[in-house]
Structures are given as C-alpha cells and as structure tokens.
Design a protein that fits this description.
The chain has about 325 residues and is an alpha+beta fold. Helices cover about 65% and strands about 10% of the residues. The protein is elongated and about 125 Å long. It starts with a helix and ends in a 5-residue tail after the last helix.
Length: about 325
C-alpha cells in the first residue's frame, strides 16, 4: 500500500471517529480553562526614564589636571556605555546584587532580598533565616538561596529603548507579587543609574577632589603665613629705623604671603572651572513615568489558552487514532505493509 493510500485511509478513519476528535477538543478546552483559572495573576511594573550616554569633551579638566601634574587621571578609558551596552549593564550580577541588598521597606528596614525570600521561598527562608546586608557573612544555605534569587530576579525584568534615535529607556519587571515587581523595577533602576553616573564622572570628580585638597592645603599655609607676619609686625612695631634689618623676616613673610595668595587664587579659579565641567559631564538622568501602587494584574487572554489547549487535545487524539489505525493495518496486512 502506497503512502498516499495510507494517508487517505487514515483520513477516512478519522472522519468516522469524529466524535472522538470532538471529545478531545472539548477535553482540551476544559483543561485550558482550568489552567487559566488556576494560574496566579501576573503584575507588571514599568518605568520610563531618560539616560543620556553622550560623551562630552573634558578639555578643561585635562588642562587643569596637567597644570597640577595629574595627567595620569585624565586618560580616556574605553566608553563601556556606548551603544546598547547600558542595557546589558542592568543585567550584571553586581548591580542586581546591589538592588537586592537595598531596602524595599525603609520603615521596617526590609531589603528586597528578604522580601523576595519571604514571599517566594517561604520554606527555604524559614530554614536559612533572615539575610543581612553583607553577602560575605551569609551561611551556606543563605548563599544558595541568594544565588537562586539573583538568577530569578535577572530574568524577571527587561530593559529596552523605545527608539534607537531617542535616549528614552523603559524597564519592566514582572512578578506574581505586586510589591516584588514594583520594588524590583525601582531598585534595579536606582542602583544602575547611580553606578552609571559615578563611573561616567569618575575622572572629573577625582580632579575636583584633588583641586579641593590643594586649595585647602594652600589656605592652611596662607593662614599660618599671615599669622606669622602679624606676630613679627607686633614684635617690630615702632622700631628705630636704624635697626630696620629686624624687619627682614616680616618682609620675607609678606613676600611668601603674596606668592601663596596668588597660587591660592589660581587654584580656586581652576576649582570653580572643574566644578562647572563636572556638572556639564554628569549624564542626564530623569524618570519620566513611575508605576503606582497598587499595581493592576496583567489581563490574560482566555481565548488564547482555550485555542492552544483545544488544538493540543485535538492533535493528541488524532495522533492516537492514527497510530491505532496503522497498527490495525499492520496486523491485518503484514506482508503488504
């Protein structure tokens, strides 16, 4: 018997057993309905935000640092935030860990890690105990649960750009618990933006700190020189002009004070320029739309569940009947088959 004949024979057999196919279809629909009703609701928390990754020239910082002999700190590192790298930054284990160790409830000082463990891993949490804020001090049981929560948290949110030409991003966290979804999106965004801004402004901030330290040192030296000059002036007050050589120390201190005052004025000028440049180089970060509690559950598509489950039920019954028909043919016609 040819393949075409076998296919025709099976098709005719399935048509005769239409009531079984209908039963499989109905069973599939019922199973899909049960799955839909028993499935817990899913909550979604989305935040749209602006995060500028444009590189700005730091010529002013380079000039200031070179004047003070700090050229090494102004070397331009590779821009790890170019292109779509910022999206991958959100998924890094370091930043997910930082978000988990942040406080979700500031009033009760409950971290996101403890919140997730309590609600999604109650048995393991009961045996492992409450988590602190130092992963190095976690017990073996806590460390295993901690790693499991990091993996789950990393897969529970997505980050994407609305348009390649725009600098607007959207982070969306989903969970069966509205509080977990809400705090995950907020804390992951908070930790990532903080790390991003600190890294982008590291060179400029270092220059400001060095200049501020230099200004404070010069201010201290200048204050001591002025005090010393005043003390010498008191000692030589109304001195006989024939003994003017005793004024030489005061005159030398006055010259030192003038030199230090000029240096201090220059450093202060450069410090103000450095602060302005730091402000210019700080990336633009603003939250546009925030989620609001209580979160509403995502509306599931009942028709989709029923359609898929009915197709699966119908397919399985058809396959079973076809297999039985082929087995019957093989038994009745062993030579021809």
């Amino acid at each position: 018997m040819s393949n075409q004949e076998q296919i025709k024979l099976i098709a005719d057999y399935l048509l005769k057993k239409w009531y079984l196919l209908l039963a499989g279809l109905i069973i599939g629909v019922l199973i899909g309905l049960v799955i839909f009703l028993r499935k817990p609701p899913v909550y979604s928390s989305s935040i749209s935000f602006v995060l500028s990754t444009d590189s700005r020239p730091n010529t002013g910082i380079v000039n200031i640092a070179s004047q003070l002999g700090f050229d090494g700190i102004t070397s331009n590192p590779d821009n790890i935030f170019s292109g779509e790298n910022i999206i991958e930054l959100f998924k890094s284990r370091k930043l997910i860990s930082a978000a988990l160790l942040s406080e979700a409830d500031t009033a009760k000082h409950v971290t996101l890690l403890n919140l997730i463990a309590q609600k999604q891993f109650p048995q393991k949490y009961a045996s492992a105990g409450s988590f602190g804020k130092n992963p190095d001090k976690f017990s073996t049981a806590q460390r295993d649960l901690y790693r499991q929560i990091i993996t789950r948290t990393g897969s529970s949110f997505t980050v994407f750009k609305k348009d390649k030409k725009l600098i607007i991003y959207i982070i969306t966290a989903t969970s069966t618990d509205p509080d977990i979804a809400y705090h995950t999106s907020k804390l992951v965004l908070d930790q990532t933006s903080r790390y991003f801004i600190e890294t982008k402004t590291k060179i400029s901030a270092t220059s400001v700190r060095l200049l501020q330290h230099e200004a404070d040192s010069l201010a201290g030296v200048l204050s001591r020189v002025y005090s010393s000059t005043a003390s010498m002036s008191d000692q030589t007050f109304n001195l006989n002009p024939a003994f003017s050589v005793q004024r030489s120390g005061m005159m030398f201190n006055q010259a030192k004070a003038a030199a230090f005052a000029a240096a201090y004025a220059e450093v202060m000028r450069n410090l103000e320029i450095a602060k302005i440049n730091l402000q210019k180089e700080t990336p633009l970060y603003r939250v546009i739309d925030d989620p609001e509690l209580p979160l509403l559950p995502i509306r599931q598509n009942l028709i989709k569940y029923l359609f898929i489950s009915s197709c699966v039920g119908l397919f399985l019954i058809a396959v079973l009947l076809s297999a039985l028909q082929l087995k019957t043919q093989h038994r009745n016609n062993p030579v021809n088959s």
